[in-house]
Amino acid sequence: xxxxxxxxxxxxxxxxxxxxxxxxxxxxxxxxIAEARAHxxxxxxxxxxAAREQQSFIEGRIxxxxxxxxxxxxxxxxxxxxxxxxxxxVTVTLEATDDGKAVTYRIVGDDEADxxxxxxxxxxxxxxxxxxxxxxxxxxxxxPGGAREYEILEVLYVN
Length: 159
Hints:
This protein is of the alpha/beta class. The chain folds into two domains: 4-75, Orthogonal Bundle (Helix Hairpins); 77-156, Roll (Chitinase A, domain 3), CATH 3.10.50. The protein has helices at residues 8-38, 46-70, 125-130, and strands at residues 4-7, 72-75, 91-96, 102-108, 119-121, 138-143, 146-156. The strands form two sheets. It has a five-stranded mixed β-sheet. The chain has a two-stranded parallel ribbon with strand order 1-2. Helix 1 (8-38) runs antiparallel to helix 2. The protein is elongated and about 70 Å long. The two termini are 27 Å apart.
């Protein structure tokens, strides 16, 4: 199985969620199950069934995060040579050649992508078109709405 790229911030976010699930959420649900058991008949106890369902979700999420972290290749973009080339983890500012609108994106792993915060997945059409290009290059992106051309204005190697 190949390694999945992850930024330092993305790895920290997953580790924090894992810590919270194990130290806060899991004990809370175990206590809720114990309390619901104390109420008697489990067949008709909605609290018990809800707590068990929540416990199942938490345990599944813990396994999922542990799997992602064990298979992750954490890339710290600040340790890479700053040569203006677009690579995983950089923040890139683009200008559309047709209307002159500038946009800024950070290229992140699939699990970290959040377009509202300007974070695009490394497997997205824009990121795939940008990887390997340099500041000043023109890039054509095949988007669902048709081909769009951008000029790479700036590439920042920051976390």
